[in-house]
Every structure is written in C-alpha cells, then in structure tokens.
Amino acid sequence: MLEAQTASSLDEKMKVEDLNVYYGAFHAIKGANLAVPARRVMALIGPSGCGKSTFLRALNRMHDLTPGARVEGGVTLDGTDIYASDVDPVTVRHRIGMVFQRPNPFPKSIYENVVYGPKIHGENNKSRLLEIAERSLRAAALWDEAKDRLHRSALDLSGGQQQRLCIARVLAVEPEVILMDEPASALDPIATSKIEDLIGELKKQYTVVIVTHSMQQAARISDFTAFFLLGELLEVGTTSDIFTRPKDQRTEDYITGRYG
Amino acid sequence: MARAIVAATAASARLGSDRARARRIVDRIATALLWASASTVVGLLLIFVAYLFVKGAGVVTWHFLTASPSASEAGGGVGPLIFNSFYILALALFFTVPIALCAGMYLQEYAGPGRFRDLVQFSAESLATVPSIVMGLFGLLIFVQTFHWHFTALGGALTLTLLNLPAMMRVTQEALAGVPDTLREASMGLGATKWQTVLRVILPSAIGQLTTGVVLVAGRIFGETAALIFTAGASVSYGKSAYDFNPFHTAETLAVGLYQTHREALVPDADAIGNGSALVLLVMVLAFNIIARVVGRRLTIHFTGKA
Amino acid sequence: MVGANVGKAHRDERIALVVLATCSAIFVLAIALILIYLAWSGTKLFFADHVSLFTFLFGSDWDGLAGKFGAAPFIVGSLVATGFAILVGGPLGVAIGVFFSELAPPRVAAAFKPAIEVLVGIPSVVYGWLGLTLLVPLIGRIFHSGGDGLLAAGIVLSIMILPTVISLSEDALKVVPTALREGSAALGATRWETISRVLIPSASSGLAVAVILGIARAIGETLAVQLVLGNAAVIPSSLLKPAAALTSEIVMDMGDAPDGSPFQHALFSMAFLLLLIAMALIVLIRIALRRRA
Predict the structure, then answer these.
(1) What is the model's pTM?
(2) What's C214-277 look like in SS3?
(3) What's the ipTM?
(4) Does residue C202 carry a pLDDT above 50?
(5) In the B/C pair of chains, how many CB contacts fall below 8 A?
(6) What's chain A's Rg over C-alpha atoms?
(7) B95-104, B154-163, C196-205, range with the lowest pLDDT
(8) CA distance B86 to B76
(9) What residue spans of C99-147 are helical by DSSP H?
C-alpha cells in the first residue's frame, strides 16, 4: 500500500544527520543519517551488537544518563535540534517516549503507573487523571483487562499485559514519537502478536521507531526499514524494497540469512 | 549443583587407592569440624540467652521496670533509665536518619565517580572505624567542654549520631542499590527529573529494606554505652521524678546504668539489678530484630504490591 | 501538557542536589573535626606537659595522679587481647563463613543466621556482664586464679568479633564464581580440597578484610573488656593475672582525672593512639582490596 511513496515524499518527523556515538573510546555509531517519516513505523534491523539500540537511545537523549557516553552530530525533531544547549532533555522525553525490551512497570498500582507521567508534569486534578488513564489504557488495548483492577499492583499482570501497560504509560504523556527497543522480545507469541496489532493502530497517530531482531516482525509491521551493521547505518528504504530489492550486498546477505 | 558433582566425584574416588581414601577422610573431618564450629557458636548464643533469662527473670517485675533507682537501699528500679534510653535513641535517630538518607541518596543516585565521592566514601569508612570510646571522648571535648553543656541527653544523642552515620548511610545505599535500574530508566524515559525519580519511584520501592536497616541500627544505638558515659552522663536524679524531656539534662541510659551498677555497687542488690538490666537489654535487642524484619516486610508489600 | 511543570521540577532538582551534597559533606567535616580535636588534645601531654613520647609508648610505670605516664601496660594489654581474639575468632569466623557459604543446606542456614544476627545486636556491656558473671568464675575455677585477665578478655573479644568476620568471610566466598567450584570438582577434588585450595585463596583479599575489620572491632572494644580484665596497670606476667587495655583504662579513669591535668592529657593521648591505629587499619584494608584486582 505504501510502496508508491518513498520516505522523502512524506513529512519528516525526525532527522538524523551524521550521528556518532562513543562509549568511552569505543565508536559505537559511525556517521548515521536517517530521516524518520511522520506517522509511519520505521524498523531498525541488523545482527545483534550492531548498534541498533544505541542509535535508538540517541533519539531521546537517553545517553545523557550514561557516564562515558558521548553523542555527536544532529538529531532534530520537527526541525529543532534536540541536543542544542538550550534544549531541556526532560522536555525532549515528553515528546519522544520510549518502551523498553523488558517490561518495567513501577511497583505501584496500574493506575499509578499510567498517571505517573502526567503527575510529574504537574497534572493534579483527579478526574482529569482518570480520563487520561482510561484513554491511554484504551489506546494500549489494555482497558478491558485493567478497568476492574486499576488499583491493584501492576506486578500482578502477565508479561504481555505489563508491556502494554508500559506502552499506556508512555501514551499518557502524549508524545509525538514512540521509540520501541525490541518491545516483544521478552514475550510469548500470542502477546507478541497483540503488541504488533497495537503498533499497527498506534501509527495512525504517532511516529514509531522500533528496533527488532526479527526480520519477520519488521516485514510484518513496518513501513520503512533501516539496516545496521557494526555501528553503520548501511541502507534505508521502504520495507518491501529492503526485503525484495536491497541495494547493498551486505543487506542482502543479512536478509537471506547468511549471518544472524 | 556443584555439591552433587563433588559428591559424585568423591564417590568415584572410592574406586581408587589409599590416597583417595585418605583424602576422603580429610574431607569428612573438615566437614565435621565446620559443622561443629557453627553449632558451637549457635549453642553459645543459646547458653547466653538462657543464662540471662534464668538469672534475670526473677528480677524483672513491673516495679523494676518503672521505679527509680535507689541510692543505697535494695529494691530500686530502672524506669528512668529505660526512658532515657528511648529518649536518647529518638533524638539520635532524629539527626542520623535524615543526614544519612540524604548522603546515601547523593552517593547512590547523583554523584558521579570523582574526588568528592571518594572523599565522602573514605570519610564514612573512617568514621565507622572510630572506636566508640574515642567518639565518646570527642563528644566530651566538643559538647561537654567546648560548648559548656556538661552532661546532656542532646550531647549524647549527637555523639551517637556521629557514631552511627556510616552504618545508616550503608543501609541507605544498599536499599537504593536494590532497586533495579530498569525502574530508573522507565521513569527518566517518561521525562522525569532525577529528583522526581528518586522521590516517587526509588524511595517507595526501597522503603521496606530501609526500614529494616533503620530499626536494626536503632537496636545497636539502644545498647551503646562507651559513647554515652562522658557525654550524657552516668547519673540520674535519685528519687525525684526522673522522666525528663529536657534534652539539656543528664540522662543515664539502661546500658550505662548496667555498667555503673557494677562499678559503684553501692546498693546491696547490685548483682540482681545488673542481671535484670542485662535481661531487659537482651530482650530489647531481640525485639528490635524481630520488629525490623516484620515491619520491613509489611512495608515492602504495602508499597510495592509484592514481597 | 508539555512544559507545564518543567520549571518547578528543575528548581526542585537544584535544591535537592544542594541539600544532598551538603549532607554528604557532613561526613567529611565530621572525621576531619575528630582527627583535629583528638590530635590537639592527644598531643598536649607531649608539648604542654613535656612527657616524652618514648616514655609514654614504652614505659611501664603508670600512676596517673602521681605523674607517671608509661602507657606500655595498656598498649601491651590491648595488643595481647586483640591478638588472642584474632587468633581464635579469626579462623573460627572464617570457618563459619565457609560453612554458610559452602556447606549449610538452606534450612540450616535459615535457622542459624538469625542466631548470628542476635549475636551482633547484643550490646557490649551485656557481653561484659556475661563475661563477668559466667566466664570469669569459670576460668577461676579451672585455673585456680582470680579469673579475670587477658584470657577472659580474649575469649570475650573472640566471640564479639565473630559476627563481623563470619558475614564478611561469607560475602567474600560468595563472590567467587561458581565456575571455579565446578572446575575443581570436575578435576576430582573433594569439597574440602576445593575450599582450601581454590576458594579460600581466591577470596583471600576479602577474607583479609574480614580479619582486619575484626581486629578493628576488637581493639576498639571498651565495656566488655573493662568488666573482665581486672584493671591492674601493669604488664601482666600471664594471661590469668589482672591486666588493663587502652580502652578500659580510658573508661575507668576519665571520670577521675581532673580537668586539664596531665593525667587527663595522658588519657587523651591514649584515645588519639587508638584513633591512629583505627586509621592505619583502614589504610591496610584499602591495600588489601587493591590487591584483589
């Protein structure tokens, strides 16, 4: 359906220019360039250890929290550089949310988890918080399962439900971009397919960038795909182009399974 | 596991020579000795506890626990001393817990590796090794002499604070370290500042372990003697109502009282009072231990939904 | 909603940073003050009262009120009592640490561990009381002596340092990777051989720390030893004769020494000596830990 449109004819939500990330002396990401189209799903694929997660974390300034990590180059959101000195990382993370590989709900109730974001951003009105909670849980396809146990501990949920709770938590702060770092890798196939369906819904409203180690998953859910190898972003294109007509030989080798 | 592997390997050694048999005998003897060591120590503890109960049970009556000490006659009690012990404990915790909690939070959550951090860590380690009598003399120098307070409950409490700051900070650090990093990531990822993360996520998750640690340290403070003798004093107003809330008055605690009972031995039933005091101290220690675990577990369940 | 609270959040962050850092600085201030005050008071004996350091450290003539300040009896007493405690309590503590780490089935460990925790919590004055009423008469009966003295103090101290040595030894052993245990077993070693030839050497720096901290605990212990030592300011000729230690002497006589007198200064010098020993032990620990890497 989207094969006719290339990345450049859509709005660019984020643009990465000549990004370099260092962990101490180790050069983890080498000169990456990427345009992330708005309201589409962009998948980042590549063998393990090639830097996909590192790249993803550069998009919401998570590396600020890692001592010894250094980020150079430009990452812009709607044209504004998020690493500019007058930009507050806290604000960046409102607009660009992140879902992690292992579900990490806070040891609080489901309700408290979801409204955590709005609360720290100053929302105190109980009825508004409840609205936000319901809206976010519906958007994360968890409302029906959660509505009768909102005040019970989030840790009682199953792995798949916890991950959807983490997604609801991110949605509650109303971001524009959602970054997902292998969100289903710790889940069973049924939970995984629920998450994948959810992503399909989310992209109607949000821009999604997802790291995945499963090519099949990338092929199923993404509109665009970027291939990473050893810290370099080798190739970007529509998902069907990447999988059927890869331009780089190394991309083709990965796709056809010459190395995992 | 490894023990099973070793057992199987030892079994196969049976097929071998005299040397193998000798090695197995050594292993058996060593094992027996290790078991004996542990059992001996546990047995010793049981003997101590039993002895204290036997000797002290007859002495510890309601009268004993509430009456004032007697200057020269038999039949005095330790009421005011117990009061002073709790009072000084409360004062000491009032100072120790906030300072140690903040310092622990700083070291665990804020401070990057660097000179200040190493300095604080080194200072804490050094403070922890200062003998309690030396700390008591420092308290004497500062509070009693330099500040001209003479013997005061406050002086004693502040000295105890210095003595227990390192332990309390370690409690804080361990409790905070027990909170998984994934929670920090999740909170920061939602756009929280570090302080918001610490206050709303990390502290609530750690509160069970924190409480256990604080109550255990409190138990140790309750029994402290050497640091108090020359700061809070070793005397109590005989006869008068000595339940004194004034922090600037002398305050002899139960532990100091036990020492004084032996030292002065003015009353004819000094030994009995000593036995009674020792038993009360022991029971308090056990109580603090039990409360620490129980309350800690309850709090963890309440705040995190899971043990 | 973006930006609604950011200003306040950042202000809170700055305030928090200042408060937390200040509390951390209190630790540094505290130890600095202690060192300064104790050094100042502890050297008055030498600078103001002109007692020679040599006399203080090596002279055995002590009579505070009469101006004799040879503190050797106390130094020797502390060293002997501590030495005894480490020679007995050290290996015993390590052995029990090995027991908990390698031998004890979970149920036994769960039963024995609370006992160790209670041992930690018993106040030192209660240990002293137990020593006085249980141990000293016992020794007196066995050895036909008064019962008090360095043997009694050594035994009491051995028991008192056990919990420290046990828990640190156990921690040191637990950190040794399981792979080493499995490798040794796969080569046909008995469990004791694995423990003695592989685990203990691997954990040696942690075990050294355990022992050093035991020493620190023993040498600083006051009440327990004061109640069982007998308090005679002489270098004892046997473990069964009354003796004295630095800590016990301070607690005994500080109340009697007149303010500002050389007697009081001498006691402060002993306290300063104790502080120096404690700091030296810390340095030793750091060296031991550095050798681990």
Answers:
(1) 0.84
(2) HHHHHHHCCHHHHHHHECCCCCCCCCCCCECCHHHHHHHHCCCCCCCCHHHHHHHHHHHHHHHH
(3) 0.90
(4) yes
(5) 274
(6) 18
(7) C196-205
(8) 20
(9) 106-121, 124-130, 136-143
A1 pLDDT band, cuts 50/70/90, is very low
Q: State pLDDT tens for residues A24-57.
A: 889 999 999 999 999 999 999 998 888 899 999 9
- How many angstroms separate the CA atoms of B223 and B259, rounded? 11
Per-residue pLDDT reduced to its tens digit, B190-219: 989 999 999 999 999 999 999 999 999 999
Residue C1's pLDDT band (cuts 50, 70, 90): very low
Q: Is-contact B87 B245, C-beta < 8 A?
A: yes
Chain C residues whose beta carbon lies within 8 Å of the beta carbon of residue A86: none
Give me chain B's average pLDDT, please: 87
d(CA B169, CA C33): 19
Pick from A94, A106, A108: CB nearest B191: A94
Interface test with C, best of B1, B3, B5, B6 (most C CBs within 10 A): B6
Q: Give the range among A236-250, B1-15, C274-288 with minimum mean pLDDT.
A: B1-15
Question: The tokens of B72 are what?
Answer: 């020269």
Q: Which of A242, A248, A257, A191 has the alpha carbon at shortest distance from A43?
A: A242
The residue behind tokens 């993360």 is: B197
Residue B7: is its pLDDT beyond 80? no
The residues with which C62 forms a beta bridge, in sequence order, are C69
The pLDDT assigned to C3 comes to: 54
Contacts of A62 in chain B (CB under 8 A): 185, 188-189
Sign of CA dihedral C152, C154, C156, C159: negative
Q: Is B161 within 8 Å of B254 (Cβ atoms)?
A: no
Give CA separation, A109 vs A151, A172, B175, C218, in Å. Answer: 5, 15, 21, 49
Q: How far apart are CA B38 and CA C160, in angstroms?
A: 15
What SS3 state is found at A175? coil
Amino acid identity of A245? R
Do B127 and C162 lie within an 8 Å CB cutoff?
Answer: no
Do the chains contact at A90 and C2, CB–CB below 8 Å? no
Nearest to B32 by CA among C189, C107, C197, C103: C103
